[in-house]
């Protein structure tokens, strides 16, 4: 029996390599490559270190995706790629060239600017702390402190959406909507345009809840995961959103990033 060959992808960056890895991960979803290793080589700042990276990539018969802002390192990468017959994909270079050519400006060529500890960084950290502290309606007083208030029934992805928005710097609180519980009075006092109602197709929510019960080792015939209960909750939430006059977003078949983008644009 012939053993399937493993795949190796190197991420080479003069910073932490997050941008290049995000592009690689997004591309990988288009392929069936179960045995693939992605290895980051971070803070590569000189040609000797770069050569060692490329030697490993050549030895393992992989390719490299790189984000190097210094022209001399990008040139060295191209030379090493030719010398070792390794495919190298420049993630950032063409984009920087497009900026330079279109806007007639020169790049700063300083590694790590995306992750420098500026005001934006500290705002994101504060927003992440806020989202964790007030997750799932732990303290309804947070509603009046938040940039964004998310409303929705259980298992509609309120928490991951809150965390994603927090990573973008928005203090986000999410409130579960349950027919038996009175909605927080603070919702009436939130500035218009900051509250968003999340809805979903009942069949999908029923499937999500059933899978959740299965993971927890619970029977799938409890009221929480019945079509009657799911439809009742969604209808109740819909009536509440209408009463509040807030935008309603159907998250069915939407990625977290897509829903967050809609919310940010509406803000």
UniProtKB/TrEMBL annotation:
Keywords, sorted A to Z: Kinase, Nucleotide-binding, Serine/threonine-protein kinase, Transferase
Residues that bind ADP: 152-159
InterPro entries: Kinase-pyrophosphorylase, PPDK_reg
A Pfam family: Kinase-PPPase
Enzyme Commission number(s) of this protein: 2.7.11.32, 2.7.4.27
Superkingdom classification of source: Bacteria
EC top class named in words: transferase
GO function terms (MF aspect): ADP binding; ATP binding; phosphotransferase activity, phosphate group as acceptor; protein serine/threonine kinase activity
Record's catalysed reaction(s): N(tele)-phospho-L-histidyl/O-phospho-L-threonyl-[pyruvate, phosphate dikinase] + phosphate + H(+) = N(tele)-phospho-L-histidyl/L-threonyl-[pyruvate, phosphate dikinase] + diphosphate; N(tele)-phospho-L-histidyl/L-threonyl-[pyruvate, phosphate dikinase] + ADP = N(tele)-phospho-L-histidyl/O-phospho-L-threonyl-[pyruvate, phosphate dikinase] + AMP + H(+)
Family named by the database record: Belongs to the pyruvate, phosphate/water dikinase regulatory protein family. PDRP subfamily.
Function, in words: Bifunctional serine/threonine kinase and phosphorylase involved in the regulation of the pyruvate, phosphate dikinase (PPDK) by catalyzing its phosphorylation/dephosphorylation.
Name of the protein this chain belongs to: Putative pyruvate, phosphate dikinase regulatory protein
Species per Swiss-Prot/TrEMBL record: Paenibacillus terrae
């Amino acid at each position: 029996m012939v053993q399937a060959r493993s795949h190796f992808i190197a991420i080479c960056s003069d910073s932490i390599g997050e941008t290049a890895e995000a592009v690689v991960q997004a591309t990988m979803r288009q392929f069936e490559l179960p045995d693939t290793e992605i290895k980051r080589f971070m803070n590569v700042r000189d040609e000797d270190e770069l050569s060692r990276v490329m030697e490993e990539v050549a030895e393992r018969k992989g390719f490299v995706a790189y984000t190097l802002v210094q022209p001399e390192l990008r040139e060295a990468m191209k030379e090493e790629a030719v010398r070792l017959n390794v495919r190298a994909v420049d993630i950032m270079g063409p984009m920087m060239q497009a900026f330079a050519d279109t806007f007639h400006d020169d790049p700063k060529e300083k590694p790590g600017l995306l992750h420098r500890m500026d005001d934006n960084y500290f705002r994101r950290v504060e927003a992440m702390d806020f989202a964790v502290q007030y997750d799932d309606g732990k303290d309804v007083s947070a509603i009046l402190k938040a940039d964004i208030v998310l409303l929705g029934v259980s298992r509609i992805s309120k928490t991951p959406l809150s965390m994603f928005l927090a990573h973008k710097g928005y203090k986000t609180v999410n409130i579960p909507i349950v027919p038996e519980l009175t909605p927080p009075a603070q919702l009436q006092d939130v500035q218009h345009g900051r509250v968003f109602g999340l809805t979903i197709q009942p069949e999908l929510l029923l499937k999500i809840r059933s899978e959740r019960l299965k993971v927890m080792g619970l029977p799938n015939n409890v009221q929480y995961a019945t079509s009657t209960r799911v439809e009742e909750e969604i209808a109740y939430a819909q009536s509440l959103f209408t009463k509040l006059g807030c935008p309603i977003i159907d998250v069915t078949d939407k990625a977290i990033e897509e829903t967050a983008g809609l919310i940010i644009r509406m803000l």
